[in-house]
C-alpha cells in the first residue's frame, strides 16, 4: 500500500531502496530492479508493506510512570496535578532511557518518525532535549522533538506547581538555542525541532505570542495542546474570556506551521477556521478515551482541509505507545461517532502516514512509498490465527484483524526492527536503566510515605526495598 497520491496498491509489490531513499516501487508486473553484489534482498512475501507510521504527539518521559495507580481514574486536570510532583524529578539520564525505550516501543508498532512534546524542564535537570535526541540517534529513529515549556504556575492561575515552570525569556532563549543546535533543514533530515508551549493553561499569553513570532523568524513548526476537553474550554473562557480557537487566533497561532494535539472540542465554525488556516491536528484516540475527554470530529476536520495525523500521546495517559493501536482506535471511534460507513482502514492508514507527514510539514518526503521519498517503511505479517480467513482485502485486514506488530521497521534504509525484534543490542541494558529511573521517580514522590504505603503502589517489592534503602542512605549522608 503505497499511500501515494493515487492510493496505489501493488499486488506482489516490491520497493527498492538506496542510500536512505526509495529508488523505485513496483508490482509483480514491473521488471525487478537490477540486484548487485552489495544489494540486500529481503523476502516479504504474504506481508503488507506500508510507509512507516508517523507519530505526531507524545510525551515520552511519561513512560516512567505508566499505569501509576493513584492516577488511573482521573480526568485531565486532576490527572496532571497528581503527576507533576513525580515528573519534576526527571533528568538527562532518565529522559535518555525513557526516549530510547519509548522510541523502541514505537518502532515495534511500525512507527518510523516520532515527535515528542517535552515541556518539562525542571531547574538543574540538564540538557533534556539533547538527551532524547542522542537516544533517537543511537536507535536510528527519525525524530521531531519539540522544545516545550511551561511558564504559568499555580500562583499565577495556571495548573503546574511553581517549581516546574520557567520564565518566558529564559524559555525563548533556550528554544532558539535548541533550534540552532539540533534543527536540520535538509531533505531527509533525521532531526527537526519545533517550539511547543505546553498548553494555554500552563503558559502565559505573552509566551504564546512570542513563541509564534520566534517560530516565524526561525522558520520552524509550532505545537501545543488544544481544545482537549471541557475543562480546557472552561479554563479558556474563565481565564482568557474566549474559547480556545479564538485564543489561538489572537496569539498568532493560526498559521500552517501549527499542528495541535487532541482537538476534541471544536464546534463546526471552529472546524472550518482550523481548515482555512491550514492547521494540523494530532488525533490521540486512546488518550482521549482513557481521560474521558471525548471523541475528536476527525471526519469533519479532514473534510474542512485540516491535516489530521495520529498521536499516541503521553505514556501515562494512553498508556501504551503503539501506533497500530491508535490506528485501530481511530477506525473504531470515527465509526462509532459518525456511522459505520464513515471511516475505513485505508483512510486511517493515510492519516497515520501522509497525515502525520503533513502535520510535520514533510508531505511527499515522509509517509509515502514513492521514488524520492525517504526509505521509511513498515512490513506487517498477515498470517497465523489472527489473520486466518482475511483473504480479500489486506489493508482492511491489517486494521480489523490483529492486534498487529511490525515484522520489520525500516528507517532511513536501516532496520530498526527485524523479524519482530528491535535490532539495537543495547535494549536490555536500557530497559534496566529505565526500570531503575521509573521506580526512583515514583519512590521520590512517595519517600515521605511509609514503606507500607510504598508497597501498596509498587509491584516489585524487592526493588522498592532496595531503592528505599538507597534513599535512606542518601539522607544519612546528607
Ligand atoms: Zn499531550
DSSP strand tally: 15
Percent range for β-strand residues: 15-25%
Gross geometry? globular
Radius of gyration: 22 Å
Tally the helices: 16
Helix-and-strand structural type:
alpha/beta
Average residue-wise pLDDT? 91
Low-confidence stretches: none
Describe the sheet with the most strands.
5 strands, antiparallel
Cross-sheet strand order for the largest sheet:
3-12-13-14-15
Bound small molecules, deduplicated: zinc ion
Q: What helical percentage do the residues reach?
A: 25-40%
Cα distance spanning the termini: 60 Å
What would your notes on this structure say?
With 478 residues, the protein is an alpha/beta fold. The protein contains 16 helices and 15 strands. It has helices at residues 76-87, 92-108, 128-139, 168-182, 205-218, 230-240, 244-250, 268-277, 285-290, 298-303, 323-338, 345-359, 394-400, 427-446, 451-457, 461-476; strands at residues 14-18, 21-26, 47-51, 53-55, 111-118, 142-149, 194-197, 222-226, 258-262, 280-283, 307-310, 377-381, 408-411, 414-418, 421-422. A five-stranded antiparallel beta sheet has the order 3-12-13-14-15, with helices on one face. A four-stranded parallel beta sheet has the order 4-5-6-7. Strand 1 and strand 2 form a beta hairpin. The longest helix is centred in the last third of the chain and has 20 residues, at 427-446. It is globular, with a radius of gyration of 22 Å. The termini are far apart. The model has no long low-confidence stretch (mean pLDDT 91). Residues 57, 59, 117, 225, 261, 313-314 line the site of zinc ion. Zinc ion (ZN) is lined by residues 57, 59, 117, 225, 261, 313-314.
Amino acid at each position: 500500500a503505497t499511500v501515494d497520491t493515487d492510493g496505489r496498491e501493488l499486488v506482489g509489490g516490491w520497493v527498492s531502496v538506496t542510500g536512505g531513499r526509495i529508488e523505485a516501487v513496483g508490482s509483480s508486473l514491473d521488471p525487478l530492479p537490477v540486484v548487485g553484489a552489495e544489494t540486500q534482498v529481503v523476502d516479504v512475501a504474504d506481508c503488507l508493506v506500508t510507509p512507516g507510521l508517523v507519530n505526531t504527539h507524545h510525551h515520552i518521559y511519561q513512560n516512567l510512570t505508566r499505569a501509576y495507580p493513584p492516577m488511573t481514574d482521573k480526568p485531565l486536570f486532576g490527572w496532571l496535578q497528581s503527576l507533576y510532583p513525580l515528573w519534576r524529578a526527571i533528568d538527562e539520564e532518565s529522559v535518555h532511557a525513557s526516549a530510547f525505550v519509548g522510541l523502541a516501543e514505537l518502532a515495534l508498532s511500525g512507527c518510523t518518525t516520532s515527535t515528542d512534546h517535552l515541556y518539562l524542564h525542571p531547574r538543574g535537570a540538564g540538557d533534556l532535549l539533547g538527551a532524547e535526541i542522542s537516544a533517537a540517534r543511537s536507535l536510528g529513529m527519525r525524530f521531531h522533538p519539540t522544545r516545550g515549556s511551561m511558564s504559568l504556575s499555580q500562583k499565577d492561575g495556571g495548573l503546574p506547581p511553581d517549581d516546574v515552570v520557567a520564565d518566558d525569556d529564559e524559555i525563548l532563549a533556550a528554544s532558539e538555542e535548541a533550534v540552532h543546535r539540533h534543527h536540520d533543514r535538509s531533505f531527509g533530515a533525521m532531526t527537526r525541532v519545533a517550539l511547543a508551549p505546553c498548553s494555554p493553561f500552563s503558559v502565559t499569553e505573552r509566551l504564546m505570542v512570542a513563541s509564534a513570532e520566534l517560530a516565524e523568524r526561525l522558520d520552524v513548526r509550532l505545537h501545543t495542546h488544544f481544545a482537549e476537553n471541557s475543562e480546557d474550554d472552561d479554563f479558556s473562557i474563565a481565564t482568557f474570556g474566549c474559547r480556545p480557537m479564538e485564543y489561538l487566533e489572537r496569539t498568532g497561532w493560526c498559521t500552517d506551521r501549527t499542528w495541535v494535539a487532541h482537538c476534541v472540542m471544536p464546534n463546526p465554525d471552529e472546524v472550518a477556521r482550523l481548515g482555512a488556516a491550514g492547521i494540523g491536528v494530532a488525533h490521540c484516540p486512546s488518550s482521549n478515551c482513557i481521560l474521558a475527554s471525548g471523541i475528536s470530529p476527525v471526519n469533519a476536520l479532514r473534510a474542512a482541509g485540516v491535516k489530521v495525523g495520529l498521536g499516541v500521546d503521553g505514556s501515562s495517559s494512553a498508556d501504551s505507545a503503539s501506533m497500530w493501536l491508535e490506528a485501530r482506535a481511530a477506525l473504531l471511534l470515527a465509526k462509532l461517532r459518525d456511522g459505520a460507513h464513515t471511516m475505513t482502514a485505508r483512510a486511517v492508514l493515510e492519516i497515520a502516514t501522509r497525515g502525520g507527514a503533513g502535520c510535520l510539514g514533510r508531505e511527499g518526503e515522509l509517509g509515502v512509498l514513492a521514488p524520492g521519498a525517504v526509505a521509511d517503511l513498515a512490513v506487517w505479517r498477515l498470517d497465523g490465527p489472527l489473520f486466518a480467513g482475511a483473504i480479500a482485502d489486506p489493508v482492511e485486514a491489517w486494521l480489523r484483524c490483529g492486534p498487529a506488530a511490525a515484522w520489520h521497521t525500516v528507517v532511513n534504509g536501516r532496520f530498526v526492527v527485524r523479524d519482530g525484534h528491535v535490532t539495537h543490542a543495547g535494549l536490555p541494558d536500557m530497559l534496566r536503566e529505565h526500570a531503575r529511573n521509573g521506580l526512583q521517580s515514583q519512590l521520590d514522590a512517595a519517600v515521605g510515605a511509609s514503606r507500607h504505603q510504598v508497597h501498596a503502589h509498587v509491584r516489585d517489592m524487592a526493588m522498592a526495598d532496595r531503592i528505599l534503602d538507597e534513599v535512606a542512605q542518601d539522607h544519612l549522608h546528607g
